[in-house]
Amino acid sequence: MVDIVISVAAKVAECLVDPIARQLGYLFNYRRNYVDLTEQIEMLDDAKVRLQRSVEEASRQGLDIFPDVRKWLEGAERIIQKKEDLIEDEKKASKSCFHLKSRYQLSKQAKKQTAEIVLKIQQAGNLDGIVSCRPPPPPLISSASFKDYEAFQSRESTFNQIMEALRNKDTSMIGVWGMGGVCKTTLVKQVAKQAEEHKLFHKVVMALNISKTPNIAEIQGKIASMLGLTLEDNNEREVRLRQSLKNQETILVILDDIWGKLGLEKIGIPYGDDHKGCKLLLTSRERQVLDTDMRTQKEFQVRHLNEEEAWSLFKRTAGDSVEQLELRSIAVNVVKKCEGLPIAIVTIANALKNKSVPVWENALEELRMAAPTNIRGVTEGVYSCLELSYNHLVGDEVKSLFLLCALLGDGDISMDRLLQFAMCLNLFERTYSWEKAINKLITLVENLKVSSLLLDHEGDGDDSSSLLFDHAFVRMHDVVRDVARSIASKDSHRFVVREAVELREWQRTDECRNCTRISLICRNMDELPQGLVCPQLEFFLLNSSNDDPYLKIPDAFFQDTKQLRILDLYKIQDITVIGELKKLQVLSLAESDIEQLPNEVAQLSDLRMLDLQNCRWLRVIPRNVISSLSRLEYLSMKECSRIEWEAEGFNRGERINACLSDLKHLSGLRTLEVQVSDPSLFPEDDVPFENLNLTRYSIVINPGWIPDDVYKASRRLWLEGVTSLYMVKCFSKLLKRSQVLDLQELNDTKHVVYELDKEGFVELKYLTLEDCPTVQYILHSSTSVEWVPPPNTFCMLEKLSLTRLDNLEAVCHGPIPMGSFGNLRFLELLFCRRLKNVFSLPAQHGRESAFPQLQHLELRNLRELISFYSTRSSGTQESMTFFSQQVALPGLESLQLERLDNIRALKLEVIGCNKLLNLFPIFVASALVQLEDLLIWQSEVEAIVANENEGEAAPLLLFPNLTSLRLWDLHQLKRFCSERFSSSWPLLKRLEVHNCDKVKILFQQISLECELDNKIQQPLFWVEKEAFPNLEVLGLSLKGGNVEIWRGQFSRVSFSKLRVLMIKEYHGISVVIPSNMVQILHNLEELNVTMCDSVNEVIQVERLPSEEFHVETLPRLIEICLKDLPMLMHLSGLGPYFQSLQALEIISCGSLINLVTPLMAKRLVQLKKLIIQKCHMMKEIVGNDGHELIDNEIEFTRLKSLTLYHLPNLKSFCSSTRYVFKFPSLETMEVRECRGMEFFCKGVLDAPRLKSLRNEFFKECWQDDLNTTIRKKFMEQV
């Protein structure tokens, strides 16, 4: 029948105009349109999977995903999810032969959606490959950098002058100079911090510790990192950096510790007319370097501390014992020898702390006998202080380690290198094992830190992790380093740091012939001198600052260094001259540009440690080179991914390159880092790793991906595309001991623990599986398997991450072994299509908590997931509740649930479920009678509860036990219930609604007979019965406007227990608390109103008479904070409620001229803290309103703290001469950036406890009384 009708319609269509033909075409092409749509949806799904993988890879690398990419994925997911609805609609349209209308509508819709999907697939092609960018750089100055910072008063004027110079448009290059150790770096860090806080520049960047041997590439890298710019190793670095800097409208570039002329053009820093928005701040020990070499326009000297400041710092470091009668005079003289330099004061105070009087006397005598020093920028007094600190180190081990640190360049000091060199030089007595040496080194480094001779790593250098140490780097202050090098040159071992250009002359001296350790600095050299005549030399470090790595080392250079044991050729290309160094034990070629490891390395038969990490261009390791190094203990080939390992068995006997099986000959190897691009390179009949006794390792099998070093672990395996059979054969020993295990594309494993490690991975801390389609269970302990997992399986596991395991049915199936998962803190399950239950347990399983430490749970894109725990027997009905009563997660801090299509009810937090239009159907919401805490965050819901029964109000007692409701960032939310809704929220104590900008009426309580009129401005709360009777905390933030908070008359019970009211970014309201709500809110204690652009009155002045209430208005209000209210012109409405107020904070209320009237001020008898900041129109705090009081005494009885900050027009606290102000309790007062304040008040002032005033630099100042102090401050500014 359908075919007849269609045939007739076709004939008619031939005679009709095109529009009619087009409409009938939807009917004729129904089947084709439907098939086209389903095919396009499948293609869209494929495009989504490709793009999602790019996104996940970018996320692993720590990159930020572009918002349009996320939106595309979300939109694609919504379309794909509609496929099931489409199939259902097609079935309905096919049931009857007369349903032409249904077919027409479906065909038309399919045609339209097909075109939209084709466009979306094209967009995916445009997005692919550009899904992310580098995240914004971290804050320039962390709070940790200033944990011990003290703003000395003697520096305040210098600091202010520098800040003023930065504000001067005519000044583009500024210099700061002073002796080494005077804290120039600390001062400019504080300058940078304040410049950022005050937004003087769009960007502030800095390069610290440039030193005598500036490394241009390193300086460029530091600046680029702060700009979020990646610089490649090519000739375009300076061009790209210059352009990036010029793209900043205004930028401050700080270059710290300059020793000579520095080529800004070569670095890529624009200045002067090239970029007038770029200012430079330079530091140096000498003024001549700044004004002559760098041609700075202004120079500011950082002077030594005065005697008072020096003594204060010394006493704080050494302890109060220095005040003892027999010690004080000695200590004072010791401080004088420090010459006011903080670095000397701190180090010598630590050295003498808790020492006896004779030790102090001897120290003073040594300081008085100080010999002259020729160290540039370091006086003999400072030298003697640091030398004394060195002499007071206990033991030769720590002293030798201190001197060794000074040899290792000018930047951060690698703990790995320290360990290698210290072991080889036998610095540690009776310590032969790696483990004992590591513990010894950590102990000695901590001792040097306590003595202030070493410092914590600040993050300017390499942040990569170490297999050996949790903290991979330490650093040494440049002055300490210079003194240490001077001491080392006099040491019996003759430690020497030399410039290569001085080498020829120096080699003629006895010092050279007796020298055992050299750190050679090469600058602007093409070739080293012909030979190094140092027959006693044991240690040689070549520190090249050349931008060109092709520094030539002559063939005979090491001819007379037969005793050499340690050779560090950092970033050197030419290394063929090392073959004759038969006693060499440590060879470091880190970050060199070599492409082939020389054959000569095979001759180094005594070599113990070979460091090749970050040799990114290394391709060839000749055969037999590695296998010849039979005594090797440490081998690092980290990030050497281009090495062309020879496949085992290929051209056997003729092969050129090394095979991985060569590693098996290294029986003494204990530490190994290696990356292999192809698992097929491993031998089939040989097991290179199983024969080794590795204690620390990082082994990566991956064709180019470099894993993030985010884990503090010493045993790591990253394996991609390796079969389980091969893995067990080649890595069995390592699997059992690994702390980090990352498996990708594992295609033949079903039960991970059973097949890979039946002992239960007892040492594993971090487990990641991605794209492993055959995995069904991580742990399978069912009776169907003839194997019982041991106790303590995964007992150390802290993080478990499973992504795209298409056949995963459960993480654990069967009983959880005792002691298992007890340390798990992070559980992440993503895109596991078949996962129904995270843990599938037997019905008799106990109810104890299996995850006492779990802090973060992330479940995303798990379409079949039903529950977290499942204990149901086969055939029983599935639980509706996601978290059953067995789930106890006492440590849970974060729960992320996204696109969990099968979940019927959520009991905790809902984050990022953008697919949901509403969260609960009414029948589910009605069942959640035990729900106590509900957080919904970053979801696209339009309503929380969907009432599908139109015309029928929702039950009165929805969520009867809910105590906390938080609705955050729900940008599509319009109301709580989609239809009529009635509830009283009887137990709700906390309600937060933030950034829900489309809300119309959130809570509407109406009777069945009453409907709400469509008002122009809707109320957030429309209630007429008792509602929110126990609400204590209410926080609201609605930017959408056109929504009142309150409307109408409320029951005496509604909101009656409200204690805290926080209103933030609530646009469109002029009054926060209307007059009819004042008496209802009689329990209000805290009122916070922030960033409300239209509020002109906080509490409405008019009163509505009421016979119903007989309660004193707001008697418990103790704290008020008003911030960023540009329309607020007065606080007169608050005056009646000041009687109990204890804290008042007013910030950025730009229209306020006066804070209070005299009458209002007299009511502030309970006020303890008053803060007023950034009110640009404020002229005085207590302003005259024309009504003079009979009693002219105004007493702030309990006020203890008063802060006035950034009030540029403030003249005084009160300008009237009539009033007497009393502050009997005032102890702390800050007046900062109030440059127009000439005096405090003209009337009588009594503040007996106030003895100091804090100014701009947070320093105390005082002269006679408060008025005199402020007057003096004003005159100094003028």
UniProtKB/TrEMBL annotation:
Disease resistance protein At4g27190-like leucine-rich repeats domain: residues covered: 730-861, 1043-1175
Residues covered by the Disease resistance R13L4/SHOC-2-like LRR domain: 563-677
InterPro entries in alphabetical order: Apaf_helical, At4g27190-like_LRR, LRR_dom_sf, LRR_R13L4/SHOC2-like, NB-ARC, P-loop_NTPase, Plant_NBS-LRR
Sections of the chain in a coiled coil: 34-93
Keyword Coiled coil: yes
Record keywords: ATP-binding, Coiled coil, Nucleotide-binding, Plant defense, Repeat
An annotated Gene Ontology molecular function: ATP binding
Domain NB-ARC: 156-320
Gene3D superfamilies to which the protein is assigned, alphabetical: Helical domain of apoptotic protease-activating factors, P-loop containing nucleotide triphosphate hydrolases, Ribonuclease Inhibitor
An individual GO BP term: defense response
Top-level taxon: Eukaryota
One Pfam family hit: LRR_RPS2
Family: Belongs to the disease resistance NB-LRR family.
Protein name per Swiss-Prot or TrEMBL: AAA+ ATPase domain-containing protein
Organism in which the protein naturally occurs: Vitis rotundifolia (Muscadine grape)
Lineage: Eukaryota, Viridiplantae, Streptophyta, Embryophyta, Tracheophyta
